Amino acid sequence: MPKQEVYGKINDREVKIFTLSNCHGTVAKITEYGAILVSLMTPDRDDILEELTLGYDTLDGWLTNTSYFGSTVGRYGNRIANGKFSLDGTEYQLAKNNEPGGIPCHLHGGKVGFDKVLWTGKATSKDGAQGIVLSYTSKDGEEGYPGNLNVKVTYWLTEKNELIWEVEATTDKATPVNIVQHSYWNLSGNPTKTINDHQLKLEADHYLPTNTGLIPTGELAPVSGT
Fold first, then answer.
1. CB-based burial label for 29 (10 Å; 0-12, 13-18, 19+)
2. How confident is the model at residue 12 (pLDDT cuts 50, 70, 90)?
3. 42, 117, 121, 145: least surrounded by Cβ within 10 Å?
4. Are 20 and 28 in contact (CB under 8 A)?
5. d(CA 113, CA 108)
């Protein structure tokens, strides 16, 4: 079973951190604050453990996390134009907590999204894999969203060196939901290097152009010729 420790305190509540490990020496650490993947370390070619994620070493550091390192982001990951949406004939106004290009929008669940709340963690295991189940209830009206949303996030570390992130949510009222995992990865093999030269290749035929405020324009543009 995963190891469980006290990571710190927020408003007199102890915040736990869980350590998952496997037979290959891979170690993942997850905290109840923000359902954050704090660390993922795996042996390199010389069997030296190296860090693969970007983040902080202490809970106090994570409380300053403005880049969403490692976080579970919600209730809605990404941007909502003007912080507004209409659903079933009702218009909802959310916090406008981001201004790309000087154009306000709602980003990653608002001022206090899922990345900034305390989840409840419980260690588990299945088929040789170690896991941590984190639960959170987002109340009706939280950050302006309708409906009580019960969320469960599970991290698994398998003996195949797989790190698996699973999420499920149920609601008692129609509501937008787009929960995402927001880790930044350093795959250079050297954790002291920046990740600014990392490149991601996607086998896609089309992409979504965005306006100055980073909101999709609605056009489905071809990749060919770009």
1. buried
2. very high
3. 42
4. yes
5. 7
